[in-house]
Amino acid sequence: MATQTEAAHVSVLLNEAMAALAPRAGGLYVDGTLGLGGHSEEILRRSSPDGRLIAFDWDAEALRRARERLAYFGERLTIMRRNFAEIAVALAELGVSGVDGILVDIGMSSLQLEHGGRGFSFQRDEPLDMRMDTRRGQTAAALLASATENELADIFFYYGEERQARRIAEILVETRKKTPVQSSRQLAELVARAIPRRFHPPKIHVATKVFQALRIAVNGELENLASFLADAPALLNPGGRLAVIAFHSLEDGLVKRALKTNQSLAEKIKRPMCAGDEEIARNPRARSARLRVAEKI
Ligand SMILES: C[S@@+](CC[C@H](N)C(=O)[O-])C[C@H]1O[C@@H](n2cnc3c(N)ncnc32)[C@H](O)[C@@H]1O
Q1: What is the model's pTM?
Q2: Fewer CB atoms near the end CB (10 Å): N or C, the chain?
């Protein structure tokens, strides 16, 4: 039985991603972002009876739940707690030199956002951790305490495309002289105060971009994606597909460039695939999803 949380996480662009990967019996695939296992389950189903999947995630809780959900596939599924940036090393450790398709669906799962307890959501009051892999790296609270005003402004501006980045950084630095900024509610309120009312966006929460920016910085998301994109093409067998679902323009820009410039890849579609109205109505998170696909020559 699916729990409330699992039922609530809807895999984005599921049919499009499957059409892109075209899983088949006997194939070997990688899902770099297992999450709650929606895409993985579909890859395994469509590659029945003997297709195999190697799935990575760096979040222990996601792995625990996905492992339970997908246990019925038995030995067809190998799960690893790894950063997908380490795909080349991880596959080499398994003795795998080529696979028939690789998918990544980057960003956060609804489990992390709503039940993570790690300060990903501005709608909750939780400690500002924001690490998806809690084994290593600096928490968001530690970053907010140690970065200079300029560094903070750059993070908010470049990773969040937040126009009020300088002002927010200034207020943050003023605030932390008196009280450390350690909870998601505290940060959300501080951002709301820092941005003049007339600049509050009409459709999204005023702190959305700052939270996104911090999460990207804490998890090194762009660096991980860049390493992955540099290594993944060489791991594909001829005819193998690389499918990447990105959620904001910085990521999508990296993907677009990598697929265009890598000599061993041919783009399957020129424009990214997006969710239709019906999917967006069912799952608002799909609104910003962009799927790009290339094939190994
Ligand atoms: C959007 S969810 C994936 C949802 C999944 N496709 C599904 O259908 O359930 C993204 C997942 O990727 C994981 N993730 C993000 N960046 C990662 C990285 N660099 N290495 C490994 N896992 C990562 C997150 O922990 C999260 O569980």
Answers
A1: 0.95
A2: N
